[in-house]
Structure to design on (1000 residues):
């Protein structure tokens, strides 16, 4: 039975999840389990292991998928508790880490660490190339622990890095040292004057740890990835690194460590090495050199490499042979049918073992396939770090499980005589791999006493696990530990009666060509002459060694952009090529928004300012949201239409009014098409009174009906006689009174000033408008008192305004409409200029495509309901009032009105802070006109960018009233609602197409 739990939008690092899976699999009721993110690649892994449930198939790449196979459903609670404890423990560790500040984007990381010079990646390979390209284009050198990058992408990235004068280290860079600062899986090596360039795995670790134990030191170990010397890549990173080390003054000796290389590429590298000014030690694993040549000292084994480098670094003459005696003697040889097995966590160490064994026993060379380095007549040398063993599980340097399984498997085979293995220490490795392996080692020694266990420990006494302690504990358990991998292999072969001897080497003159060396780039030289300043993208623990040894780091808590939607990722990457242009266009739009000077100047009948409503031959209503028809309207909007028809005297009864609409006698136009906005249903007819707000800079005007107050009101779908009478009073009394009062002012009421005051008093201008409404009363009442009107009329108007806490909402909506319409003129870019909803669709418009609508189904608000009502009664999201969020207030400025958060069901003050901080991530700037005191007097956010929305998956949040889904029942609650992601994705795709994007 498969048990599945999906934790939505809960991105976790893959290595942590692999360790968590181990813990879950240890539960007795669990047959097997897998915990991973819901990416396509991970779903393939789940499928291959028989754990791909229907729920898991529907998960997104940002969802945490927990699948457990068990005979009992009861195990679910235990698993979820273990998962929660594990993730909570990670959170505590993260929060206690004061060394590395955590950010959520590359841009934010560069703000925190503006002089960063290195990006360290440990993210899933399917996303790696895209993210690394972004870092390179931002001028960052790249260290890619990330693997599974196609070789074509590696070549492209390295070409780009070379072009920009940067180093692209990796992919599959396991270890590195930059200016004596350890990176990723690395040992603690004393500083020195040796500079290393290598494939960046256990080869570098073996050489550097031997150098350390010999008393010398390393200044740099520049990883290249295992394919750099392949024909397809052409040694781009190797060459650039060698050139830099040659000009790096503290480096006295250059050391090059390579897995088997393409001959032509290898020869190019050797020519370069013969041309540099410093002595070079080089090892090309698989080659067996018989001499040194010119300036290049060619080694056969990793230990020889280290010892040659130390002698050269210390100015000592080189020896003709560096083979050292093995520590252990062999008193009895193994029978002829017994073989040597190698179970390595390090690929380079496995390759060295395979090379030495096949040379000694003439087994015909290495056979790299499915994790095997050597597979011949029972002689199996296995790289347990190969993809076949690490897919969906941690590397064997972290997780002992695969090695333990293989140790037991091979110990049980009749022909096994010697088992070789490595224990790799250092940062990133298992905190006590020795202790983890000892129970299995002891079991093998007791059960199979004739099997010889031979090991090498890669580490130093400064490593967190301590080299000498690991050696002593293994030896006490009967393991024969040698001081290098080469010596361990020689010991294993001695049990087979083979004594491996290295040939003596002499130095012969180099007679080949030399080359003129180009100067290394300033960026690379800067990287090598300063402590690294790292943006760590992925595994949090990689910060530890950086900060411990004098580097700086900022933690970028990466997750797949666009929710892992590959089409959207492709579009976002395409638009990266236009980023400077788009940023400039967006900044221009935002600046126009800031510069708008909105004034309330009048209240008039809608038909007097909206020509579409003044055509008496055509019954016309305006509505909220993008275009919609009568048949598809929800209950509240239809109810508002009925009320408008009764108000306009188009019908005398509800039945007559309904027939008008059902027979198609009424034309519908979105408010937004005619410079208007309307709350909730947004229904506006010709005789209704509308507020007029004007931008004094360019004369752009916008219109909105006035707020009806509370109770049964048209905007919530009520259409009783009481509703109609109130609309008539607003048309005949309230509107004309305010209009006359405004005429007594010189320019009308300056709304920017009024909003700036009210936001400091706790308004956010969607759910809370009480301060702004009272400030409006303060402005308008003295003018009303001057009017030559009946005192009862004045009283009624002033009383209505004083009682209507939300009166300013409609003024704010017209203000928002003036702001966006002023900014939309001839605008370009990706800024959202309209957000609205009609109860069925949520619609947006953006600067570039002007009047085009992009829609997606609306969501139903979440919040608090009045007594007797629940979410089942709530109508889907509706109204033009999201214009407030469009210009950066409403829920976008929740922090300005923390008191509102509980009313709309969003929690308390901390929730208000978090909401506003989240909204800031999808906006490009702040509006200094509207400063928020409890946000350190920063301005409200401004300029919602569809790129940021699609990239982060964060959609705008909107404060809203909740209407009953049945017409006429009015408001039943208040809450918040998220804009659907789909409309922003559609807008982004259309924008990208306008820039030339094709989804080929």
């Amino acid at each position: 039975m498969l048990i599945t739990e999906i934790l939505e939008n809960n991105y976790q690092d893959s290595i942590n999840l692999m360790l968590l899976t181990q813990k879950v699999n240890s539960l007795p009721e669990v047959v097997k389990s897998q915990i991973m993110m819901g990416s396509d690649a991970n779903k393939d892994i789940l499928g291959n292991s028989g754990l791909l449930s229907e729920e898991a198939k529907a998960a997104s790449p940002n969802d945490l998928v927990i699948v457990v196979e068990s005979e009992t459903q009861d195990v679910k609670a235990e698993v979820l508790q273990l998962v929660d404890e594990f993730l909570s423990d990670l959170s505590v560790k993260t929060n206690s880490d004061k060394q590395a500040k955590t950010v959520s984007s590359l841009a934010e990381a560069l703000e925190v660490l503006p002089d960063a010079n290195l990006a360290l990646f440990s993210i899933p390979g399917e996303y790696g190339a895209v993210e690394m390209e972004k870092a390179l284009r931002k001028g960052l050198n790249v260290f890619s622990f990330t693997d599974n990058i196609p070789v074509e992408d590696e070549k492209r990235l390295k070409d780009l890095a070379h072009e920009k004068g940067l180093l692209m280290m990796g992919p599959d860079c396991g270890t590195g040292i930059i200016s004596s600062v350890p990176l990723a899986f690395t040992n603690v090596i004393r500083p020195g004057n040796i500079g290393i360039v290598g494939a960046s795995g256990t080869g570098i670790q073996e050489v550097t740890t031997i150098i350390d134990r010999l008393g010398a030191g390393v200044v740099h170990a520049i990883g290249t990835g295992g394919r750099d010397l392949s024909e397809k890549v052409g040694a781009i990173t190797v060459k650039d690194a060698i050139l830099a080390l040659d000009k790096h003054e503290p480096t006295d000796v250059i050391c090059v460590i390579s897995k088997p290389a393409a001959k032509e590429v290898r020869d190019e590298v050797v020519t370069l090495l013969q041309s540099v000014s410093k002595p070079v030690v080089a090892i090309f694993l698989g080659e067996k050199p018989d001499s040194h040549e010119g300036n290049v000292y060619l080694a056969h084994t990793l230990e020889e490499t280290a010892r040659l480098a130390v002698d050269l670094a210390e100015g000592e003459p080189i020896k003709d042979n560096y083979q050292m005696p093995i520590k252990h003697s062999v008193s009895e040889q193994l029978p002829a049918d017994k073989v040597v097995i190698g179970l390595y966590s390090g690929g380079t160490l496995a390759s060295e073992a395979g090379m030495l064994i096949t040379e000694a026993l003439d087994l015909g060379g290495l056979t790299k396939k499915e994790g095997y380095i050597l597979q011949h007549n029972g002689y199996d040398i296995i790289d347990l770090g190969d993809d076949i063993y690490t897919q969906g599980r941690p590397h064997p340097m972290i997780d002992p499980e695969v090695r333990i399984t293989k140790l037991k498997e091979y110990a049980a085979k009749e022909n096994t005589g010697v088992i070789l293995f490595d224990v790799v220490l250092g940062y990133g490795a298992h905190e006590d791999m020795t202790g983890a392996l000892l129970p299995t080692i002891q079991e093998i020694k007791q059960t199979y006493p004739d099997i010889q266990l031979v090991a090498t420990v890669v580490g130093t006494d400064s490593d967190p696990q301590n080299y000498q302690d690991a050696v002593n504990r293994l030896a006490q358990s009967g393991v024969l530990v040698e001081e290098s991998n080469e010596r361990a292999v020689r010991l294993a072969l001695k049990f087979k009666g083979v004594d491996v001897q290295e040939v003596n080497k002499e130095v012969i003159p180099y007679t080949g060509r030399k080359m003129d060396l180009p100067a290394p780039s300033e960026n690379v030289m800067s990287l090598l002459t300063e402590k690294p300043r790292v943006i760590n993208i992925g595994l949090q623990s990689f910060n530890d060694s950086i900060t411990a040894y004098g580097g700086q780091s900022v933690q970028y808590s990466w997750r797949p952009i666009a929710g892992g939607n590959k089409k959207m990722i492709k579009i976002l990457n395409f638009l990266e090529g236009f980023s400077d242009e788009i940023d400039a266009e967006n900044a221009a739009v935002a600046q126009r928004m800031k510069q708008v000077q909105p004034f309330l100047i009048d209240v008039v009948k809608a038909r007097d300012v909206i020509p579409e409503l003044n055509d008496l031959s055509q019954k016309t209503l305006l509505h909220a949201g993008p275009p919609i028809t009568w048949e598809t309207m929800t209950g509240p909007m239809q109810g508002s239409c009925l009320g408008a028809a009764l108000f306009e005297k188009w019908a005398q009864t509800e039945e007559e009014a309904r027939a008008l609409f059902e027979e198609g006698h009424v034309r519908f136009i979105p408010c937004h098409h005619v410079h208007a906005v309307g709350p909730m249903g947004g229904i506006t007819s010709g005789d209704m009174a509308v507020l007029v707000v004007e931008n004094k800079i360019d004369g752009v005007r916008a219109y909105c009906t006035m707020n009806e107050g509370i109770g049964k009101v048209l905007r919530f779908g009520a259409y009783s006689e009481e509703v109609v009478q109130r609309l008539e009073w607003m048309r005949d009394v309230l509107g004309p009174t305010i209009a006359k009062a405004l005429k007594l002012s010189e320019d009308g009421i300056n709304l920017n000033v009024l909003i700036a005051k009210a936001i400091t008093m706790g308004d956010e201008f969607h759910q809370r408008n009480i301060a702004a409404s009272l400030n409006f009363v303060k402005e308008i009442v003295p003018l009303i008192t001057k009017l030559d009107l009946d005192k009862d009329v004045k009283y009624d108007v002033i009383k209505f305004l004083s009682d209507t806490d939300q009166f300013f909402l409609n003024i704010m909506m017209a203000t928002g409409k003036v702001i966006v319409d002023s900014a939309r003129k001839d605008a370009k870019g990706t800024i959202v200029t309209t957000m609205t909803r009609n109860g069925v669709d949520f619609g947006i418009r953006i600067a570039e495509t002007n009047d085009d609508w992009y829609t997606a189904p609306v969501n139903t608000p979440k919040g608090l309901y009045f007594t007797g009502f629940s979410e089942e009664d709530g109508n889907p999201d509706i109204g033009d009032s999201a214009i407030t969020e469009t210009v950066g207030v409403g829920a976008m400025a929740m922090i300005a009105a923390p008191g509102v958060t509980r009313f709309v069901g969003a929690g308390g003050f901390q929730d208000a802070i978090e909401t506003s901080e989240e909204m800031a991530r999808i906006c490009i700037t702040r509006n200094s006109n509207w400063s928020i005191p409890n946000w350190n007097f920063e301005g409200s956010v401004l300029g919602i960018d569809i790129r940021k929305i699609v990239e982060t998956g964060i959609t705008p949040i909107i404060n809203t009233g909740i209407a009953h889904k049945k017409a006429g029942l009015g408001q039943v609650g208040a809450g918040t609602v998220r804009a659907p992601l789909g409309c922003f994705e559609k807008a982004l795709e259309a924008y990208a197409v306008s820039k030339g994007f094709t989804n080929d």
Notes: Confidence is low (pLDDT under 50) at residues 94-98. The chain has five domains: 2-96, 102-323+515-559, 339-494, 594-817, 826-994. The longest helix spans residues 721-743.
